[in-house]
Amino acid sequence: MSNIIKKAGLVFVGAITGVMLSLNFSAIAKKDSVEAVHPLPIEELRTFAQVFGRIKSDYVESVEDKRLITEAINGMLVGLDPHSSYLDKDEFKELQIGTHGEFGGLGIQVTMEDGLVKVISPIEDTPAFRAGIQTGDLIVKLDDTAVKGMTLTEAIKLMRGKPKTSITITIVREGEKEPLIFTLVRDIIKIQSVKSKLIEPGFAYIRITQFQEHTGENLAQAIKTLFSESSTPMQGLILDLRNDPGGLLNGAVAVSSAFLPKNALVVYTEGRTADAKMRLHANPEYYLRGHGRDYLHDLPSEVKTVPMITLVNGGSASASEIVAGALQDHKRSVVMGSQTFGKGSVQTVLPLGNDTAIKLTTALYYTPNGHSIQATGITPDILDESENDDDQRVREADLNRHIANGKKGEKKPETEKAAQKSTNKPKKENNKKNTGPIEFGSSEDQLLTQAMNYFKGITTSPEKKGEKSDG
User: Fold this and answer.
1) Is the CATH code 2.30.42.10 the one for domain 102-190?
2) Domain 194-455 - what CATH class?
3) What residues form DSSP beta bridges with 350?
4) Model pTM?
5) How far apart are CA 436 and CA 440, in angstroms?
6) Residue 466, exposed/middle/buried by CB under 10 A (0-12, 13-18, 19+)?
7) Which of 92, 133, 223, 333 falls 20 to 30 Å from 185 in CA-CA distance?
8) Which residues are catalytic?
């Protein structure tokens, strides 16, 4: 029996080696630069084959080869960093649907921490938001199934589902003695990418909740409407990127381009391959997909010069950090709020055939002045701590296996110090169980009030990183 397993293992090593060699040569042929070919780790492949054989022969239940190979691929990618992953047919389809801004589920942005699902933030106007799910909540049970031991992908699959079906979520929340139980009804999550209004004549408010396929076009329409509806010349514009988890890169370039001079550098990337080295400018070729009409060409000229404030917090990640960093580096906008998430890595979706794909981290983002966003984020010009949940947030630097910031001399945000400061604060009674989080842009939004006071020259209490700018 052992000889059979040994022979099977050697055959498996040969098959795997052949496949990897063909993939390796294919990848090398596609690269612009010639790199040294590293020999395959035959000993490790032999060990892999032995484990495969032992599982097939000795595991308590029979396991399909397809499942073992899929889990092995999953393990390779998950072990790299928090954002690389394997996408099966359903996940690949959901990813494509998500960029269009509509999917079935609860409306929660989550990550994995210590084997539990942790809420980064609820998405506005969703079942989770309305029920009062909060940043920092730990999801320990989905219906009767314990989350411990699940992968993040498995947990998300359970939370998503057909609209009008219900799920019971058990949550552990800091400051609560007993777990909280929420019964939520799944819904079609239609994320409105751009929301806008006139706060008062001459002062515009634009909120971007996520960077989707049509975010640039929606922003352009919002700008035209606001400028035409204001009864007085525009004196200030507030761009709200709080709790915006990011999305499509071309959407971030489009939003930045609306406010920056033409051809200004928005962001650049650095990676190992030629394709991973990009410099994206405020130019239609970098934000239009295909040969469509440039929806930014007829914006009011004042949008390039009107004083701006960009609002950010610990939930501002990826594409929203790109926008905030570009506007800050070009001194186009004052950035106000708290340290952003620090998700400065580029994921490329690489289709594998059979409607599956891998999402692989291939590069890091840098702001126009060369600041690496990864694991540091964007530091606001005006720091504000009015949002009392911000110290509880999970940031990129807190995630297991996160990629370290690649720039020498740059310091990570003092998350430990912030956490210590949070623990020293007196505990406040939680009154948000049924009312849910404060709506951004509402009369209860303290940071928005701070921004308006800043525009009007009223003294603000938050600590300033630099002097007041007219931008």
Assistant:
1) yes
2) alpha beta
3) 358
4) 0.79
5) 12
6) exposed
7) 92
8) 318, 329, 343
